[in-house]
């Protein structure tokens, strides 16, 4: 699991509330949804252009997504990494246990002091949490958590306060399964539903493209202006049928293919159908070694470096090709630019956002930026569509059953143009630069069909018997509530 953090000088937060309606509803502030923007730290509308610390690729704090929680009475702001691949909230990493730029980020993440909160209560229990990268020894407490833009204050939320941590420079907000599945207590997502901050136990992620500079998360609702067409339902694999036996968001992926420019004739990678889990806490996507090598070959990379990264030509970011991930009912097309990581050296160095792993097959942020994803913890489903952006129209869900009739408000005209080629099994060892490897067939986190739609159709569905959440438009400083931050160098 990748950890990362950069706390910029300032950020503004749009506070949104919900009112009553039907199906997709605008509900009262204590009974609906919590909608918050994801702000990229490169967005000059919100941040100064000053970058702070320049990172090497070895530092994991160059790109990740964070929430700022205000914990305790009076509220104490701390940053935690938003993580769909784990289940628990914990704070207070040991900044002396990380090095270089990671330590600088850690020191800016903020610390929660139990002795300064009048509502803090120790539960007298401890646990060690282990991640793909990093560990944390925690002691459990309960305290209040204030949600920015809402009068809702979650009471007596259980979370961990680290006493010792290794290789971790921020706390983590695990938003995976909770009580009765992965934990023995109500986790953060459980508490949102239990305390009527949401009507359903579900949330949606639209991380936003690099160019868009912002995205959105909606706890208890959807934002139909962030995707196109209907949502495809993908059953989450039961833990006893998943590759690692852990209750994560495992789904069946049918294939991976590449649609290179200029002719748009796609090639399917043999053996690319497999279970994968969706992990916002992982910067990179992890795939089996043979498949990763085949994809890297088509990007002009022959071998990985000593750290497992495939260096590629930065000019690929200007090409209109896509890497396409097919599921039952939806194909998510990831543009080359979204799949790449750029390190701001002189000259810049670019790397493929996929790494080889024999332990996990997961789709991390390099995939999730191009997917609109609903995590439905009530029916154990992932609902997915191609991410795009045609505005903002967050709406609360009255029931997760309504997801089957929700249609994205955006069109897919430009995406359809890039998807006009025919997919055929790859047989030519032709890479993007004219040489390279042929796609070949080949057989983390805490341990415990392209869709079509039109803008008019989507909006008609929203306004016919339904209504939207709305925001106060109030700009707030970082001192309160929750705000998601992406720090990305490219």
SSE inventory with pairings:
Layout: E1 16-17, E2 24-25, E3 34-40, E4 65-71, E5 76-83, E6 89-91, H1 100-108, E7 121-130, E8 135-146, E9 153-166, E10 171-174, H2 188-194, E11 202-206, E12 214-219, E13 221-223, E14 228-230, E15 232-235, E16 250-253, E17 255-259, E18 266-268, E19 274-278, E20 285-287, H3 289-298, E21 311-312, E22 322-327, E23 330-335, H4 336-339, E24 340-343, E25 349-352, E26 354-356, E27 362-363, H5 365-368, E28 371-376, E29 381-386, E30 394-397, E31 407-409, H6 413-418, E32 423-425, H7 455-463, E33 470-471, E34 484-486
Parallel strand pairs: 3-34, 5-10, 6-9, 18-32, 19-27, 20-26
Antiparallel strand pairs: 1-33, 2-30, 3-12, 4-5, 4-8, 4-34, 6-10, 7-8, 8-9, 11-12, 11-28, 13-30, 14-31, 15-29, 16-19, 17-18, 17-22, 21-25, 22-23, 24-25, 28-29
GO molecular function, one term: aspartic-type endopeptidase activity
Region (Disordered): 418-459
Biased composition (Polar residues): 419-429, 442-459
Describe the structure.
The chain crosses the membrane at residues 470-489. GO terms for molecular function: aspartic-type endopeptidase activity. This protein has 490 residues and is mainly β. 10% of the residues lie in helices and 33% in strands. It contains 7 helices and 34 strands. It has a 6-stranded mixed beta barrel with strand order 4-5-10-6-9-8. The chain has a 5-stranded mixed β-sheet with strand order 23-22-17-18-32. Strands 2-30-13 form a 3-stranded antiparallel β-sheet, with no helix packed on it. Strand 4 (65-71) and strand 5 (76-83) form a beta hairpin. The protein starts with 15 loop residues before the first strand and ends with a strand.
């Amino acid at each position: 699991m990748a950890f990362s953090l950069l706390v910029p000088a300032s950020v503004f937060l749009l506070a949104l509330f919900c009112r009553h309606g039907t199906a997709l509803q605008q509900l009262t502030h204590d009974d609906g949804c919590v909608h918050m923007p994801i702000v990229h730290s490169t967005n000059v509308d919100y941040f100064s252009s000053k970058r702070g610390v320049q990172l090497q690729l070895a530092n994991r704090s160059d790109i990740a997504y964070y929430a700022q929680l205000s914990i305790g009475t009076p509220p104490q702001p701390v940053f935690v990494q938003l993580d769909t691949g784990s289940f628990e909230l914990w704070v207070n990493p040991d900044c002396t246990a990380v090095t270089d730029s990671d330590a600088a980020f850690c020191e800016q993440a903020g610390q929660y002091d139990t002795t300064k909160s009048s509502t803090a209560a120790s539960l007298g229990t401890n646990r060690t949490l282990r991640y793909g990268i990093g560990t944390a020894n925690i002691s459990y407490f309960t305290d209040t958590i204030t949600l920015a833009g809402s009068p809702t204050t979650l009471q007596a939320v259980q979370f961990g306060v680290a006493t010792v941590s290794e290789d971790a420079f921020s706390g983590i907000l695990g938003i995976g399964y909770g009580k009765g599945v992965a934990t023995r207590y109500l986790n953060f997502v459980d508490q949102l539903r239990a305390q009527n901050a949401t009507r359903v136990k579900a949330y949606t992620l639209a991380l936003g493209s690099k160019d868009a500079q912002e995205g959105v998360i909606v706890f208890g609702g959807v934002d139909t202006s962030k995707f196109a067409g209907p949502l495809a339902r993908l059953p989450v694999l039961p833990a006893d049928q998943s590759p690692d036996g852990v209750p994560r968001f495992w789904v069946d992926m049918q294939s991976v293919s590449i649609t290179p420019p200029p002719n748009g004739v796609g090639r399917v990678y043999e053996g690319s159908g497999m279970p994968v889990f969706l992990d916002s806490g992982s910067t990179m996507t992890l795939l089996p070694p043979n498949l990763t090598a085949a994809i890297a070959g088509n990007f002009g990379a022959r071998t990985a470096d000593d750290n497992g990264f495939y260096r590629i030509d930065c000019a690929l970011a200007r090409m209109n090709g896509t890497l396409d991930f097919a599921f039952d009912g939806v194909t998510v097309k990831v543009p080359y630019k979204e799949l790449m990581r750029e390190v701001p050296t002189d000259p810049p160095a670019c790397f493929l956002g996929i790494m080889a792993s024999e332990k996990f097959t997961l789709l991390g942020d390099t995939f999730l930026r191009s997917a609109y994803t609903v995590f439905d913890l009530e029916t154990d489903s992932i609902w997915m569509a191609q991410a795009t952006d045609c505005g903002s129209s967050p709406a609360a869900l009255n029931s997760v059953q309504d997801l089957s009739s929700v249609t994205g408000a955006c069109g897919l005209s430009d995406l359809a143009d890039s998807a006009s080629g025919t997919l055929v099994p790859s047989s030519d060892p032709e890479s993007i630069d004219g040489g390279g490897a042929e796609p070949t067939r080949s057989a983390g986190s805490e341990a415990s069909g392209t869709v079509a739609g039109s803008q008019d159709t989507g909006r008609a569905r929203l306004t016919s018997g339904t209504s939207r959440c709305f925001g106060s438009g109030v700009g707030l400083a970082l001192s309160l509530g929750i705000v998601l931050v992406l720090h990305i160098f490219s």
